[in-house]
Amino acid sequence: MSKITRRKFLAGSAAGGAAMMMTPAKKAFAAGSFEGFPDGMGVLVDLTRCVGCRTCEAACNVEQKLPEPALPFDDTSVFDEMHHGQKRRTTDKAYTIVNRYEPKSADEPLYRKIQCNHCNEPACLTSCFVNAYKKTPEGAVIYNSKVCVGCRNCMIACPFHIPAYTYSSVLNPVIKKCIFCYDTRLKEGRPPACVESCPQQVMTFGKRKDLMVIAHERIKKNPGKYVDHVYGEKEVGGTGWFYLSNVPFEEAGFDVNLPKKPIIDNVKDFLAIVPMVLTIWPALFTGFHLLATKGKSHGHGDDNSHDKQEGH
Amino acid sequence: MKKLATYGVKPHDAALKADGKQWSLMEKLLLGLTLDQYIGQVLRNKLNWVLAIIFAIGIPVIIYRFIFSLGAVTHASYDYPWGLFLGFGLFCMVPLSASGFMLGTTVEIFGRHDFEPIERLALLNGLLGYFFAVVYLLVDLGQPWRLSYPMVYSFGPAAVLFLVGWHVATYLSVQVAEVSTAFFEWIGFKRGYDFIRKGTVGLTVAGIILSTLHQGALGALFLYAPGKVHPLWYSSAFQWIHFFTSSIPAGLSMVICVSTIVIYTMKWRCDQRFIDNLDRITISLAKGAAMGLSTYLIIKLIAVAHDNEWAYLATGWGTWWLLEIVGFVFAPLVLLSYAIRHKLVGLCRVGAFWVVAGIILNRLNTALITFNWQLYQEIPHKFEIIISVTIFAIYVTTYRFILNRLPILYKFKPQADE
After folding, report:
1. What ipTM is given for this predicted complex?
2. pLDDT tens per residue across span B177-230
3. Which of A24, A85, B46, B348 could cysteine-pair with B339, CB 3.0–4.6 Å?
4. Residue A17 falls within a domain, yes or no?
5. Per-residue confidence (pLDDT) for residue A62, from 0 to 100
6. Which A residues, 226 through 285, put their C-beta within 8 Å of a C-beta on chain B?
7. 3-state secondary structure chain B
8. Rounded-to-integer distance, Cα B206 and Cα B7, Å
9. A177 in a domain, yes or no?
10. Does the pLDDT at position B244 exceed 90?
11. A161 domain-assigned
């Protein structure tokens, strides 16, 4: 065995330290809170500007090479579609959809675009047991279908009901969701197809932190126009896509009861007990065994002396 | 079998035949009957006809699922990604199989050899329950052939399901080892038996650790869905401990239920030791179940207090919650306590079935019924129900096949005695 030199030792500990630093960051699972990559991109959605033309839906369909929908994209009857008493949602054939709402506090209907919100600390990612999801430094939450087993825990975990599943596939069913046009656009710094296609400039693409400043400025500069809240700034730890509205967010179909902390924070208490049980239980129960059986026969089966005892 | 016994036919229960010869494997499989006798008793058994009908309908549907995808047998719902296969198959079967580690602990760790006559039944109940939970999982997974990915290929160690996967896999191996002693006796492999017996304490402690964690982890899985599970069934602080604690009465009651069915329908296979001890053991198990149940009742109430959810009790969901807690936790608890006090074995058995029903209700409530309470409720697809019933029938068949043969309900007469 060669002696461990000081240099090797230092290199080793540096690598170990780096590994320890890397692991939690990669998994977005660090102690404390992860507030997103500093240069992560985002989209600010101003609901007051949306007219429900569904151009973004059409652009997404082309960009992501999705199948043609049953009704054309200029058909507004889809806004009246209801499934189980619910408005439309994202599916494996439509990564983004626009819904119409009739808010009580406004005279006009309000349209809202729904797609993956690209959370800073995504619930889908942290619930995945094969690490199929990844939050890229550019801000997208992408998915690797090559490792997906199909447990659909991410669909359970997503607080926005976004991931859909190709149930009809026999050999290769996978999750389908908006990936921020990562492969074709975001990687090169270009905005996603839906943002670019919007004729009303509902969506603004940029660095998340810059957009957040713009969002608050817009609220301040237009007193009375907006509700004083940026939906997605704090919700479930912050999302890459966030919203401005002129009506309370619950009237536009948003879930306003979501926790401010990332979903994974709910689970951390349980995950913390795991190593404790693993280390304490063996000693505890072996101890019980020794205490309970001291001086007694360890015989198995052939020891009938207790058979007549009453159980306690 | 009862009928055959009147003709003086004795089932295989010892290493050697009465005349001192070895049993052949074929003879062991046929329970020591001739082929005609064996087929005769299979046909006479009415349960076999019921099972045959279930298989005739259900097995084609299972094949249909693997040819025409999951979408063909479920509603393919994006809002209810987990249906009956996991809601019942995983979330109910696993707590009902907690018996293995409970009785293993009692006998091997606490040295309570007075529970020994039922230990193997409890271990087998655990093994089969877990095994079939995995079968349900395989039907439910989109790509079941990738089941080993979280073990060997791509790790997501921060996920609760990662822990469940690893623990169920490890615990299944532990249970196979624990039950293998019965199998080694049956095939006459004494060295294997001795080898496993030496490691019993280690295996049992491993079983406790793994059970604590994955029973709890099944509850913790729902911590990812704070807005989706109704607040009364959700507790970010206590979810895992609710699931773990309720698995204790669940597992113990399941053993009482199975032993009850066995003593009424398979008495020929039970030896005198099992028959004589069963009433006493039933009451003792019921005591354990009652203690577990009372603890569970209290921590359920504490959870409501902790999150200050009393206001929900006045709603429709609150009534449903009260029905579960009063009707399926408190009521069986009262019944069991009364039965234990007055040593009424029959009532203990009724109570045990009641507890099992209550646990199933609780898991279905958490996973399906109150899930998406703010959206809509979904009734599972008829094929989903058929497949779930069929897998359960396969479970019953396997269970009975093993009980008929391996020395679970009876003690194998070792070679030395002959």
Report:
1. 0.86
2. 888 888 888 887 888 888 888 888 888 888 898 888 889 999 999 999 988 999
3. B348
4. no
5. 94
6. 255, 257-259, 263-264, 266-267, 269-271, 273-274, 277-278, 281-282, 285
7. CHHHHHCCCCCCCECECCCCCECCHHHHHCCCCCHHHHHHHHHHCHHHHHHHHHHHHHHHHHHHHHHHCHHHCCCCCCCCCCCHHHHHHHCCHHHHCCHHHHHHHHHHHCCCHHHHHHHHHHHHHHHHHHHHHHHHHHHHCCCHHHCCHHHHCCCCCCCHHHHHHHHHHHHHHHHHHHHHHHHHHHHCCHHHHHHHHHCHHHHHHHHHHHHHHHHHHHHHHHHHCCCCCCHHHCCCCCHHHHHHHHHHHHHHHHHHHHHHHHHHHCHHHCCHHHHHHHHHHHHHHHHHHHHHHHHHHHHHHHHHHHCCCHHHHHCHHHHHHHHHHHHHHHHHHHHHHHHHHCCCHHHHHHHHHHHHHHHHHHHHHHHHHCCCCCCCCCCCCHHHHHHHHHHHHHHHHHHHHHHHHCCCCCCCECHHHC
8. 46
9. yes
10. yes
11. yes
> What range does the domain containing A159 cover?
35-265
Average pLDDT of chain B?
A: 87
pLDDT of A246 higher than 90:
yes
Pairwise CB contact (< 8 Å): B142 & A285: no
b/e map B373-412, b = 16+ CB within 10 Å: beeeebebbebbbbbbbbbbbbbbbebbebbbbbbbbbbb
Q: Which residue has the tokens 């006045």?
A: B314
Q: Is the pLDDT assigned to residue A35 strictly greater than 80?
A: no
Residue A251 is encoded by which pair of tokens?
């009237």
Q: How confident is the model at residue A65 (pLDDT cuts 50, 70, 90)?
A: very high
Residue A83 lies in a domain: yes
- Structurally, chain A folds into a number of domains equal to 1
**A146-158 pLDDT tens trace:** 999 999 999 999 9
Which residue in A108, A107, A145 sits closest to A128, CA to CA? A145
Residue labelled with tokens 């054309």: A72
CB-CB neighbours of B18 under 10 Å: 8
Distance to chain B for A3, nearest Cα, Å: 34
Check A257 against B146: CB less than 8 A apart. no
CATH number assigned to the domain with residue range B45-411, chosen from the 4 options 3.30.420.40, 1.10.540.10, 1.10.260.40, 1.20.1630.10: 1.20.1630.10
Residue B112 has pLDDT above 60, yes or no: yes
Searching chain A, which residue's CA lies closest to the CA of residue B157?
A129
User: CA angle B210-B215-B219, nearest 5°?
Assistant: 140
Return the residue of B nearest to A152 by Cα: B81
More confident: B373 or A177: A177
CATH code of residue A238: 3.30.70.20
